[in-house]
Amino acid sequence: MRTNQRDGQMTYRVDGAGENPIVNYEPSITGGLREAQYPTHDEQGPEITGRLTRMRIARTNDYQQAGQRYLLMEEWERDDLVKNFTDLISQCDRAVQERMVWHFLLAENDLGRRVGEGLGIMPEDVAHLDVLPGQTLGEEDRKRLASLGDNPPRDVAQLTMTHCVPDERHVVTR
Question: What pTM was computed for the model?
Answer without folding.
Answer: 0.64
